[in-house]
Design goal:
Elements (H helix, E strand, L loop, with lengths): L11 H21 L6 H11 L8 H14 L1
Helix pairs in contact: 1-2, 1-3
């Protein structure tokens, strides 16, 4: 069920998921570069971003981050 839209307001859900995906892909890239990332943080961000992860190269990760930023 969709909430009624009010004038001069942005629907929060429209920007919420892309923002969470940006945060997740940034976390993944940080982990790949050798920064310490908590496993629980990884799980929480992955669940909120709702993205499948599998063996990805660094170029694939950068591409996913670019796509998430474009959607934002």
């Amino acid at each position: 069920m969709q909430a009624p839209l009010h004038e001069h307001r942005v629907l929060f859900e429209a920007v919420d998921l892309p923002r969470k995906r940006i945060q997740f892909w940034t976390t993944v890239i940080r982990c790949r570069k050798g920064c310490k990332v908590s496993v629980n943080l990884w799980k929480r961000k992955k669940a909120k971003a709702r993205v499948p992860t599998h063996d990805m190269t660094d170029d694939d990760l950068d591409a996913q981050l670019r796509l998430a930023r474009r959607d934002y």
